[in-house]
Fold:
Amino acid sequence: MDVIELLPRLHLLRFPVGQAYLWSDDDTATLIDAGTIGSGRGIADALTALGRAPSSVRRIVLTHFHEDHAGGAGEFAALSGAEVLAHRLDAPVVLGTAPGPEPRFEDWERPLHARAAQLLPPGDPVRPGRVTELSDGDVLDFGGGARVVHVPGHTHGSIAVHLPEHGVLFTGDAVAAAPGTGEVIPGVFNLARARMLASFGRLAALDTEMACFGHGAPVTKHATPTLRKAADRHGVGR
Structure:
């Protein structure tokens, strides 16, 4: 796992597939996504290396149920005592009480998905014992007030998390940065691409300085115009 400082309060945790983000307030921390199956111990070790106890993480906010984002949540929650939060539509899948619907792949996405799947660790995730359900517009007690933004399309319960006070936006997989070029693009492997594009437009309408994606390098400066140009390029209304 690579750990990259984006801001004094914000670190990116990069896994072989996907990434998570650690937001630090003065005495507590929040994890945005939790990596793949088996990532819990690595996240705990990364926190220790940063001078934080794993128990300082009070909550794990999952942007959606996919294995590369939620696979490590139960394991790290057991290690840290953190609360796990997800949108009410994805929470049953995170808990393992409902199956997760399969994406509707575009033809060009199929080889990409096959390559990514080869990098995922085998086995079943450790399920959290409880998931706190979120809804659009909820405000969470970190980062000066973190607003939950429902961005369906990638999954039915996909969310983004916006920190207006700090100008930081966690987009989940509604937005990505293309490998190699870093071009900002709509997310792939969606349940409903049209809904995901509408969600992309909603995020592009927000005012933010930094955009942190589930895949690809974040936009660390002037994120709003970058997102709006990407939305226009892909014919997305706002």
The mean pLDDT is 94. Residues 193-204 form the longest helix (12 residues).
